[in-house]
Amino acid sequence: MVDKKQLEEVYKQNLENDIINAISEMKGIDLRKAFDIYYSSKLAEQISNDSYGIENMDAKYLAEDLIENESELFNRIK
Asked: What's the predicted TM-score (pTM) here?
């Protein structure tokens, strides 16, 4: 039987992958750049820390929010 902690970790990893894919598609950038942007963001920290129940939100919404509120990351990562 799989325990709840393991399921939550798998869900979190899938959410992160979905966010990275959404960033890549929305901004027309390669996955490596989207990966770097995501892991440089406050959003990645919030999801990692289970802050605000954010890990239960839709990946596309979270990607849109990151793009809108952390646009400086796109200028830093070329």
From this structure: 0.87
Phi-psi region of 22 (alpha: psi -120 to 50; beta: other; left: phi over 0): alpha
Walking along the chain (78 residues) 10 residues at a time, the average pLDDT comes out as 82 94 96 95 90 83 94 78
Q: Write the Ramachandran bin of 34: left for phi over 0, alpha for psi from -120 to 50, otherwise beta.
A: alpha
Cα angle 59, 10, 31; round to 5: 50
Residue 34's nearest CA partner among 18, 47, 45 is: 18
Fill in the DSSP letter of residue 15: H
